[in-house]
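Incident log, support desk, overnight shift.

02:14 A customer reports that sequence design results differ from what the structure should imply. Their input is reproduced verbatim below. On-call engineer (initials T.W.) acknowledged and began investigating.
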């Protein structure tokens, strides 16, 4: 995968993450797990942004880029995160069809479902953090 394709993939994830954060933050009086999910998505958003710009300046023939490419491989961590966001967003968009007030008053996920997202987000944050730190080793 070339840097442009990886950047496009990360930009798509940033847009999905932004949509998920927008939905989560629009909920009024949601349970505590909503706040945890929003915080973790926001932290991941920051790491994805750093990775995006690091990839933009990367040498596609370099060792760092070759190692980082695994993040975007088929069914790799970025694809898994995209699938997770796609589980979150259709439920949110189904609510969007209802009136806006009802959507903002209701948190639609059971506690176990949001708690299942958190380890996946944490794993991706760790992998991206490692990739960003490895860039320092190759400098």
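02:41 Re-run completed on a clean worker. Output:
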């Amino acid at each position: 995968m070339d840097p442009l394709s990886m950047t496009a993939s990360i930009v798509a994830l940033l847009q999905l993450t932004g949509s998920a954060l927008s939905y989560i933050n629009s909920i009024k009086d949601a349970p505590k797990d909503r706040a945890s999910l929003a915080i973790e998505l926001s932290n991941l958003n920051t790491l994805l942004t750093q990775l995006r710009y690091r990839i933009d300046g990367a040498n596609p023939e370099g060792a760092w880029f070759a190692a980082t490419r695994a993040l975007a491989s088929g069914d790799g961590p970025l694809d898994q995160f995209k699938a997770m966001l796609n589980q979150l967003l259709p439920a949110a968009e189904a609510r969007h069809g209802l009136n806006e007030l009802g959507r903002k008053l209701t948190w639609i996920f059971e506690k176990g479902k949001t708690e299942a997202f958190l380890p996946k987000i944490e794993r991706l944050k760790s992998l991206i953090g490692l990739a960003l730190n490895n860039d320092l080793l190759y400098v």
